[in-house]
Amino acid sequence: MIILGLNAYHADSSAAIFIDGKMIAATEEERFLRIKHWAGFPKEAIKFCLKEAGVSLNEVDYICIGRDPKAKLWNKAKYLLKSLPKKNTLIFDRLKNRGKIKSLEAEFAEMSGLSEAIIKPKIINVEHHRSHLASAFFASPYEESAILSIDGSGDFSTTMIAYGKGNQITVLDSVDFPVSAGLFYTAFTQYLGFPHYGDEYKVMGLAPYGKPVYVEQIREVLKFTDNGLFDWDADYFVNPNEIKMDMDTHIPIISNLYGQKLVDKFGPARKEKEELTQKHKDLATSVQRVCEELILHILNHLQARTGSKNICIAGGVAQNSVANGKVLENTAFENLYIPSAGHDAGISMGSALYAYNHILKQPRAEAIYSAYTGSRFTNEEIEIFLKEQGIKYQRLNDDELYDKITNKLIEPGVVGWFSGRAEFGPRALGGRSIIADPRNNQAKELLNAKIKRRESFRPFAPSILKEYVSEFFTKVEDVPFMEKVFPIKPEKHSLIPAVTHVDGTGRLQTVTKDVSPRYYALIDKFREKTGIPILLNTSFNENEPIVNTPAEALSCFLRTQMDMLVLENCLIVREDNLHAIL
């Protein structure tokens, strides 16, 4: 059975394809169109998935989209009736998008040549949050588990709790729009001067620089309820009727969310690019702290309700790796699974899994521990490209390659690493990474200023061989998708300063030989030479989506100050290619 899953007409549009429950390929549309958080029809991602699976659209049994216009119709109707005095911009925008979803048949007909009559019976609508739930639980190794989906908003829900067993998911409760943990965090993100869609991770990165002095005031904004969910004080936010989410250009833009009461309480909002004061840092700390408290409040009630020792989490708020790193020590859960694409791109994967397992009642496939489901290129394809571009390179075997790369890292140097398939999700995991020596206390400043061109407070991640986690971190858990932040042992801070955040933590990725053989071998070679089983890892991009092709990797290399570029087994050295740079 072949199932194609979609996240379409929504931020981070994507496609994923499964054959008999096994994921063959999954990727975001932004990787092809080079526009962050692309929110249109994922045509290129679909074409890629079909090609990787070796099938035509006609051979696909079902096309699943992670959005269901019929979900919570009565709740929507009641909300709209209350909103009649004013036009509810967000709801009307979503209704307008609903018309686009009805045109899926036309979109597929246009790209495939099949008639709409053939395509229509294949389409299955899956509610947004049920797709998130499925992306976590059905991809996990657990036979049964509590499940949490928590984000901004989707199909009129903002949070959904559930219990999964076997191939079935039972929804236990949910929170309706506009009350939202995601919108709460976004409102403060905007207030702190980060206005762009997806900027919430900047607040998380800024938080360790402050103190939680505003926690009590921010607790007045969110109201934790006895049923294990939450409400909020609506006066801190704009009237929901005024919220606008513009996706007509396929570039998601969300209007201002914070209200006058928030300004009255905390003072004037910071303008973009204004100086970050200690007050701003303290607010970031406090917002992050209350967000963590909310997540733990929900999870502790959910654990008591289900009795499960396992928890699966998805949704945009599940990308909060600092909160994720505190789950197991602050709840009675013993095991945690979060997919590589916990954000809305994972909707494509989740809608397909929900249809296959829950609706069609098919048996579950093996757990997913690899995010390498995207683009890939052979050495031969890369060599043809490099020769066409007049780039000097060496093609080396793995041992020679790892030796030269690690020598350059130790000098110190910075290397662009393009190996195997691209990752599905927002984080580079050794497929499309920029790497450096974690011992170099100048690496952080170099990368932020001359390569990534981003805010200086944002941290870099340690990719660590799984066997050595206990030597460097105070907690030992599997973290295959860089989805958790853990404290680094104090005595190790001076050894790996480039990946130790200001608060002594690191957002780690545990690297295993079976999932990431080449990346593992490279880190192990570095360990042999330095005694440190860690590389600094950041995504291979420069204010753009992560590179997807050799051409994009080369372009990024040439316009920044990386010292080496590795394209599979082809090694490009900066000094040898000054003609291309000049």
How is this structure best described in words?
This protein is an alpha/beta fold and 582 residues long. The chain folds into three domains: 147 residues, Nucleotidyltransferase, domain 5 (2-Layer Sandwich), CATH 3.30.420; 190 residues, ATPase, nucleotide binding domain (Nucleotidyltransferase, domain 5, 2-Layer Sandwich); 203 residues, DHBP synthase. Helix content is 36%, strand content 20%. It contains 22 helices and 23 strands. The strands form five sheets. Strands 15-23-22-16-17-21-18-20-19 form a nine-stranded mixed sheet, with helices on both faces. Strands 3-2-1-4-5 form a five-stranded mixed sheet. It has a five-stranded mixed sheet with strand order 8-7-6-13-14, sandwiched between helices. A hairpin with a 2-residue loop joins strand 7 and strand 8. Helix 17 crosses helix 20. The chain is globular. The N and C termini lie far apart (52 Å). The mean pLDDT is 94.
Unreliable residue stretches? none
Tell me the CATH topology of the largest domain.
DHBP synthase
Q: Tell me the structural class.
A: alpha/beta
Tell me the strand percentage band: 15-25%
**CATH class wording of the largest domain:** Alpha Beta
In total, the number of domains comes to 3
What does the radius of gyration come to?
23 Å
The CATH superfamily of the largest domain is identified as Carbamoyltransferase, C-terminal domain
Report, as a whole number of angstroms, the end-to-end distance: 52 Å
Q: Count of DSSP E strands?
A: 23
Strand order of the largest sheet: 15-23-22-16-17-21-18-20-19
**Biggest β-sheet strands, sense, barrel:** 9 strands, mixed
Q: Helicity range of the residues?
A: 25-40%
Mean pLDDT: 94
Number of alpha- plus pi-helical segments: 22
Shape: globular
CATH architecture annotation of the largest domain: Alpha-Beta Complex
